[in-house]
Amino acid sequence: MSRDDEDRILHGLYYHRENIDEDVSVTSEQILWLAMHPLSEGHAWFKDGQPQSVDTSAFPDDIQCKLSTAKLELPLRYLQYRRLIRYARRGDDAISVAVTFAGADRAIRLHTRRGRIDLWYREHKDGIFGIAMTIFISFLTALITMVAAIRIMR
């Protein structure tokens, strides 16, 4: 499981309908398709009037169980824990998923490069790399300001 799987699932679910707190009924294979394709392909999830899905029978039996747990159950639970989605199982394979307001906000940010950079910075600003990036940007801003001030003074 990775944060990328969660982001791909959230992005695809939101841009499928672009509605907040509206339940969508999907299968686990359809959500697996989202988890296994990059964000740039997320808009192609809904094709020919039906969300695309992964054929899990192509994987060996021992991999199918791990695939379902790692790429489906854990990301969905974590997204629900973070209050980005609400989901519930219906029947044996149907899943009812609704993107919350916070989830829609994150999905909208994931849709653009600037938004992804902003999310990355917010998640890493407390670490050593985030602090180094903040110092670098501050230094660069001061340098540009100083060069502009020297040119104006001439």
Describe it.
60% of the residues lie in helices and 13% in strands. The protein is elongated. It is an alpha+beta fold and 154 residues long. The protein starts with a helix and ends with a helix.
CATH fold description of the largest domain: Arc Repressor Mutant, subunit A
Backbone shape: elongated
Architecture per CATH nomenclature, i.e. the level-2 architecture of the largest domain: Orthogonal Bundle
Distance between the termini: 57 Å
SS-derived structural category:
alpha+beta
Computed over alpha carbons, the radius of gyration is 20 Å
CATH class of the largest domain: Mainly Alpha
Number of helices: 6
Series of secondary-structure elements, N-terminal to C-terminal: HEHEEHEEHHH
Number of domains: 2
Indicate the percent of residues in helices.
55-70%
Sheet-strand content, in percent, reads 5-15%
Low-pLDDT residue intervals, each spanning 5 or more residues: none
Question: Would you kindly provide a brief summary of this structure?
Answer:
By secondary structure, the protein is of the alpha+beta class. Helices cover 60% and strands 13% of the residues.
Strands, helices and their partners?
Elements: H1 3-17, E1 24-27, H2 28-35, E2 46-47, E3 50-51, H3 61-81, E4 85-90, E5 94-99, H4 101-110, H5 113-124, H6 128-153
Antiparallel strand pairs: 1-5, 2-3, 4-5
Helix pairs in contact: 1-2, 1-3, 1-4, 4-5
List keywords for this structure.
two-stranded antiparallel sheet; three-stranded antiparallel sheet; 2 domains; Arc Repressor Mutant, subunit A; elongated; 60% helix; alpha+beta; 154 residues
